[in-house]
């Protein structure tokens, strides 16, 4: 059995939108039968995040790309962070890819 993936949700302060996105993604992942460890963090804390996947809003992409992060981390950027359809469409393929690499 493989270990659960570590997925972090990133926003400006690490409290509001990242938690909202995490809650929606938790439902999407549960419906898909995916086990994962979920967390959320402020963008300023991203250098210390150890994750398999980082999920954030598209507007944070330029800032996140400025950090030198582990090249093994996959990124998912969303237009609407609480849209379960978009979350499923963008996150689940990345999860499946990561699971096949394990």
UniProtKB/TrEMBL annotation:
Keywords, ordered alphabetically: Transferase
Pfam families: PTS_IIB
SUPFAM superfamilies, per database record: PTS system IIB component-like (SSF52794)
Keyword Transferase in record: yes
Residue ranges occupied by any Phosphotransferase system EIIB component type 2/3 domain in the UniProt entry: 7-91
Name this polypeptide is given: PTS ascorbate transporter subunit IIB
Phylogenetic lineage: Bacteria, Bacillati, Actinomycetota, Actinomycetes, Actinomycetales
Coiled-coil zones: none
